[in-house]
Amino acid sequence: MSEQMYSNSKLSVAILGAGAWGASLANLAAANGHQVRVWSRQGSQIQAVLKDVQIVLSAISMIGVRDVASQVQSFPLSPETIFVTATKGLDPQTTCTPSQIWQTVFPNHAVVVLSGPNLSKEIQMELPAATVVASNIPTAAEIVQLVFSSGRFRVYTNPDPLGVELGGTLKNVIAIAAGVCDGLQLGTNAKAALVTRGLTEMVRIGNNWGAKTETFYGLSGLGDLLATCNSPLSRNYQVGYQLAGGKSLTETLANLQGTAEGVNTCQVLMQRAKQQNIPVPITEQVYRLLQGEVTPRQALDELMLRDIKPEYNY
Ligand SMILES: NC(=O)c1ccc[n+]([C@@H]2O[C@H](COP(=O)([O-])OP(=O)(O)OC[C@H]3O[C@@H](n4cnc5c(N)ncnc54)[C@H](O)[C@@H]3O)[C@@H](O)[C@H]2O)c1
Ligand SMILES: O=P(O)(O)OC[C@H](O)CO
C-alpha cells in the first residue's frame, strides 16, 4: 500500500463503537468525504459494516475489545485493510494494550494507534484539536493521517505506537487524582505538582514497557495529560471530583455518562507495577482510594509524607 495511492481517494471506513468517541471520529472522516459505516452492538450487523472496507477503526471501550476483535476475525477482509485503535485502556487478563490485542488477532495487518488530547464534546463542537497516529508501518499511519486531517483536526504521525497508546491510557489514572485535587480545592501549586509527578510516573511505567521517553512529552502524553487533568468534560476527572465530594465509587460510576477507563486501568497498572517492581506512588493512592481503603485526605497525606528524595535519579 502506498500513501500516494490513497492521497486523493475516498476510502471506505468501518467505525466499531458508536459511543462519544466513535461518533466523533466517524464525523471527522465523513466530513473529509470518506464513506463511513458505524457499528455498535445495539445496532447493525457487523458483517454489513465490514464489507469491502479499507480501514477498520475501533473506538470500543476496553472491556469489549477482545470480544469484538474475535468477531471481526470471522469475516473476510482484504490483507491491505488497516486497523486503527482509539481505545485508551489495558486488558485486565493479560495487561495487553488494545493495539497488542488487534495485532495478535490480525498478525498480518497494519495496526495504527490514534491518541491525543481529544475530549469528544469539544470535537463535536468543531473546536480545533490535534492528535497522533502511530504505527510500526509508517505508510499505514500516513494513510490514517490523511483520512482524519482537516482544518479543525490536525493529525501528526509518530513511530512509537506503544508510547502513544500508553500516554493516552496512563494519564487517565492521573486524571482521577487531578479530579480529587480540584474536588478538595488543594490549589494550583498542588495540581502542578501532581500533574508533573504524574508525568514522571507515566514515563517510568512506559520505559519499563519499552516505550520511548520523548513520546510522553508529546501530544499523546503531556498533551492528553493536560487536557484530561484540567477539564470537567473528562469522565476520569469527574470520577476523582465526585470521590473528593464524598460520593462512593459505585454511586459515581452509576451516574457517569460513558466510560471512565482509568478505574480499570488503575487495577491493571498496580498488578503490573508490583510484578515489575516499578514505584508508582500516585497510581497506588488512586488504587487504594478506588478500593475504599483510604479517604481522599488520607491519600493526600500518604503522598506528601513519603520519604524525601531527589527529584530525579540521574
Ligand atoms: N470520549 C472521549 O472524549 C474519548 C476521547 C479519546 C479516546 N476515548 C476512548 O475511546 C473509548 C470509548 O470511549 P467513549 O467515550 O466513546 O465511550 P462510550 O461509553 O461513549 O462508548 C463506548 C462504546 O463501546 C461499546 N462497548 C462497550 N462495551 C462493549 C462490549 N463489551 N462489546 C462491544 N461493544 C462495547 C459501547 O456500545 C459504545 O459503542 C475509551 O477507551 C475511551 O478512553 C474517548
Ligand atoms: O473523558 P475521558 O476522561 O475518557 O477523557 C477523554 C479523552 O481521553 C481525552 O483525551
UniProtKB/TrEMBL annotation:
Substrate binds at K88, R235, N236. GO terms for cellular component: cytosol. GO terms for biological process: carbohydrate metabolic process; glycerol-3-phosphate biosynthetic process; glycerol-3-phosphate catabolic process; glycerophospholipid metabolic process; phospholipid biosynthetic process. Sn-glycerol 3-phosphate binds at K88, G116, K171, D224, S234, R235, N236. Residues 160-300 form the Glycerol-3-phosphate dehydrogenase NAD-dependent C-terminal domain. NADPH binds at W21, R41, K88, S120, R235, E261. The active site is at K171 (proton acceptor). It catalyses: sn-glycerol 3-phosphate + NADP(+) = dihydroxyacetone phosphate + NADPH + H(+); sn-glycerol 3-phosphate + NAD(+) = dihydroxyacetone phosphate + NADH + H(+). Keywords: Cytoplasm, Lipid biosynthesis, Lipid metabolism, NAD, NADP, Nucleotide-binding, Oxidoreductase, Phospholipid biosynthesis, Phospholipid metabolism. It is found in: Cytoplasm. The keyword Lipid biosynthesis applies. Pathway: Membrane lipid metabolism; glycerophospholipid metabolism. SUPFAM superfamilies: 6-phosphogluconate dehydrogenase C-terminal domain-like (SSF48179), NAD(P)-binding Rossmann-fold domains (SSF51735). Catalyzes the reduction of the glycolytic intermediate dihydroxyacetone phosphate (DHAP) to sn-glycerol 3-phosphate (G3P), the key precursor for phospholipid synthesis. NCBIfam families: PRK00094.1-2, PRK00094.1-4, PRK14619.1. One of its GO terms (molecular function) is NAD binding. Its EC number is 1.1.1.94. Belongs to the NAD-dependent glycerol-3-phosphate dehydrogenase family. It is an enzyme of class 1 (oxidoreductase). This is Glycerol-3-phosphate dehydrogenase [NAD(P)+]. It comes from the Bacteria. HAMAP family: NAD_Glyc3P_dehydrog. Residues 45-138 form the Glycerol-3-phosphate dehydrogenase NAD-dependent N-terminal domain. InterPro entries: 6-PGluconate_DH-like_C_sf, 6PGD_dom2, G3P_DH_NAD-dep, G3P_DH_NAD-dep_C, G3P_DH_NAD-dep_N, NAD(P)-bd_dom_sf.
